[in-house]
Write a structure and sequence with these properties.
Order of helices and strands of chain A: HEHEHEHEHEHEHEHEHEHEHHHEEEE
CATH superfamily of the largest domain in chain A: Response regulator
Radius of gyration of chain B: 21 Å
Shape of chain A: globular
Strand content of chain A: 15-25%
Distance between the termini of chain B: 66 Å
Number of domains of chain A: 2
Strand order of the largest sheet of chain A: 7-6-8-9-10-13-14
Order of helices and strands of chain B: HHHHHHEEEHHHHEHHH
CATH topology of the largest domain in chain A: Rossmann fold
Strand order of the largest sheet of chain B: 1-4
Oligomer: heterodimer
CATH class of the largest domain in chain A: Alpha Beta
Number of strands of chain A: 14
Shape of chain B: globular
Structural class of chain B: mainly alpha
Chain lengths: 380, 326
């Protein structure tokens, strides 16, 4: 009897402790003094770790510049350590809890759409605004959470550009390849709706697993289907492999890659086979009008050039700063409204939001790999 | 390579109409997908051999084996980057792969000595968890060295050159070479296991380790050798992957590790010919699945058939049913 009572006491004590930890959850509460804390959701392990680290470097640079210039509303801005989402929905849910149980006031980051989606509800429940740097699946829009703002052009903008390009090239039969994850599948689904509406046939839709080495079977199936153009909706490294094997396997039509492949690394990834391949891209630091000075500062600080989404990451922080300055407070509703009303010109272009909190203006460009370099495709 | 010499106009003019491209006959499709499947299957088979050998001898599912493949690819890449300055062609590639084989054999041996040997008498689960740990250590080491980035590689070996059968079908010399190398390695390994004293010792240990010890066989040395051979084979597969696919990444061992493990189970884990047949079969089934019902369903197709096979032969194609005598 005594033993049971003791056990019961222990259980009650543990439960009480657990609840008190939950109750202490400091996320979102702000008394207007002390630093403004930014939680960071990015993949810094797993296959997309490079992008996560690159984007976090851009965050670090932006926050250092703000603090050097006297901070924000007279307060210091403090970047919390990255909560690693590993580009994986399950890890992202845990990472989100880590952020909401920390002292974060706002959240920045978001690279893989699947991971971002898994984390967003937690931020919403804790009244925490998230400015999403790179994730651009329209499934984020579908969640309809009033505190998440996407600054990268969504998949619909991208497919509109693809339709323009396919018409420009004068072909009709397109094969789509995605990678089975949320972002690339979303792009494929939208293509499967929008392309037929524009009188373009999708002759086959294929899936290349992320990291799958051999895709020769897919290449044969695509050639068999008679495609004139392959739309690669996936990421740059697998894209390099796909392009090489498409050419090795005898595919001679056009290849267009989506923004997941829009990286300077896509050129060495494709090698000689990449000559002539087109890439839909939002402007990165190397291509954007105001990107050069950012890239210089980045190289000086980190000893290497910035990656595809570093400029988006930098814009994320600067946009949030402008919104907080406009609001004059870090109050949730005031900053949310300020973001909704904002017109901010960043490195990646003009940022303002639709009522659904997607970026309003498409900033997609068409690049082409030519003699081992990107060039803007003439006429588009 | 294909388009470098073309002008922009030629490049655009080069587009064939859909109708022309789709003039494949059924035989051509079957033949091309057969080649595709065999090449993919060769990789699975080489990696599966290491899984199967280690399992056969110490009943350990060595989850780190896929990462030995990755490490082998990485070492080949580094070695070739160094060697390329004085020998860029086939000789350089072969030297790089041999260097990678030797280093991976040493790594495999060290892993066995440091991480697994102290646990041979512990419950099997402890060993399994250790294998997962070793896998993460290898992955993260390469991740830190490469900064998590993909490394790309273009050898001077022309993968476009090859034998063509008519308009649509072809196989490159590199592909032929890879399949030949795999076949030769498998024959050598089979002879080694069946004809030499070391091979005999391996087979004996897989039956009864304690009896072998009593008979004066140096069990620990034989286990060490098994790890070295398995790791060297994975390193060859890794080296071939660098040359053929042209990229290295710290994560690349994961999928092939899973697939090779599957291949080993299908063939009958512990069986050498089983690992080879299992690997080739998995490669062929994946190619067939891609062609017949699309790449989205290729794994469902391949694994569906494999599950059905396991229902009828639960120990795999070449697996033996062991009878426990009380």
């Amino acid at each position: 009897m005594f033993k049971t009572a003791k056990n019961l006491l222990i259980i009650i004590a543990v439960l009480a402790l657990a609840f008190s930890v939950v109750a202490c959850n400091g996320g979102g509460s702000d008394d207007g003094t002390g630093p403004i804390n930014l939680g960071v959701l990015l993949p810094i392990s797993g296959a997309q770790a490079y992008f996560g680290n690159d984007m976090n470097n851009a965050f670090i640079l932006a926050v250092e510049q703000i603090n050097e210039a006297g901070g924000l509303l007279g307060r210091e801005v403090n970047l919390l350590p990255v909560a690693d989402d590993g580009c994986d929905p399950m890890m992202a849910a845990q990472a989100a809890t880590r952020i909401t149980s920390s002292d974060a006031h706002f959240v920045v980051g978001g690279f893989c759409s699947g991971a971002t989606i898994a984390a967003l509800q937690e931020f919403y429940d804790n009244d925490m605004i998230m400015v999403i740097s790179a994730s651009n699946s329209t499934r984020i829009t579908d969640l309809n959470l009033n505190q998440s703002f996407m600054i990268n052009s969504p998949a619909t903008h991208q497919v509109d550009k693809l339709v323009d390009l396919v018409h420009h090239l004068g072909v009709t039969d397109v094969a789509v390849i995605h990678q089975g994850d949320d972002f690339t599948q979303n792009l494929s689904d939208i293509s499967n709706v929008k392309l037929p509406e524009a009188n373009i046939n999708i002759v086959t839709t294929q899936v290349m697993e992320i990291g799958a080495p051999d895709v020769s079977a897919i290449v044969t199936a695509i050639r068999h289907a008679g495609a004139d153009l392959v739309f690669w909706a996936g990421y740059f490294a697998d894209g390099g492999n796909m392009v090489r094997q498409l050419r090795q396997g005898g595919f001679e039509g056009y290849i267009v890659a989506a923004d997941g492949s829009s990286s300077i690394e896509f050129i060495p990834a494709t090698g000689p086979a990449g000559h002539g391949v087109m890439v839909l891209s939002t402007p990165n630091a190397q291509l954007a009008a105001g990107g050069a000075s950012f890239d210089e500062a980045f190289i000086e600080r980190f000893g290497m050039s910035s990656g595809s989404y570093a400029a988006h990451a930098y814009d994320t922080i600067m946009l949030l700063r402008t919104a907080i300055e406009n609001a004059g407070t870090t109050d949730f509703e005031a900053v949310r409204q300020a973001l909704q009303d904002i017109e901010y010109r960043g490195i990646t272009g003009l940022i303002s939001f639709t009522p659904e909190r997607e970026i309003r203006y498409s900033n997609f460009l068409v690049l082409q790999i030519w003699d081992g370099e990107y060039r803007l495709l003439p006429g588009l | 390579m294909l388009h470098n010499s073309m002008t922009e106009k030629q490049l655009y003019a080069n587009i064939k109409s859909g109708g022309e491209n789709s003039l494949f006959t059924t035989y051509e499709i079957i033949f091309q997908q057969l080649i595709n499947g065999l090449i993919q299957g060769s990789f699975y088979a080489l990696v599966a051999l290491g899984f199967s050998m280690v399992y056969g001898i110490i009943k350990l599912i060595n989850f780190a084996h896929g990462d030995i493949y990755m490490t082998g690819a990485f070492i080949s890449f580094v070695a070739f980057s160094i060697i390329a300055s004085f020998s860029e062609g086939v000789v350089g590639v072969v030297l790089a792969v041999i260097a990678s084989m030797l280093l991976c054999a040493a790594i495999g041996f060290s892993i066995q000595r440091i991480a697994y040997k102290p646990l041979f008498d512990a419950p099997r689960l402890s060993l399994l968890i250790t294998a997962v740990g070793v896998s993460l250590i290898l992955q993260n080491t390469v991740m830190v060295i490469t900064n998590g980035q993909f490394m790309f590689f273009h050898s001077a070996i022309d993968n476009m050159a090859g034998v063509r059968f008519g308009e649509n079908i072809g196989i490159s010399f590199l592909e032929i070479a890879m399949m030949l190398i795999t076949a030769v390695l498998m024959i050598i390994l089979t002879l080694f296991i069946s004809k030499t004293m070391w091979g005999k010792a391996m087979r004996a240990i897989s039956t009864d380790k304690d009896a072998c010890r009593l008979m004066g066989i140096n069990v620990s040395k034989v286990i060490g050798l098994t790890f070295m051979i398995g790791s060297a084979l994975a390193a060859i597969a890794g080296g071939m992957a660098v040359i053929y696919y042209g990229q290295v990444h710290f994560f690349m061992g994961y999928i092939i590790g899973m697939k090779a493990f599957t291949a080993a189970v299908i063939g009958g884990i512990g069986s050498i010919p089983g690992a080879m047949v299992g690997g080739l079969l998995l490669g062929l089934l994946e190619a067939a699945g891609t062609q017949l019902i699309g790449s989205e369903w290729k794994d469902v197709f391949a694994f569906g058939i494999l599950i059905a096979m396991l229902i009828f032969r639960p120990n795999g194609i070449f697996g033996k049913t062991t009878i426990e005598r009380m």
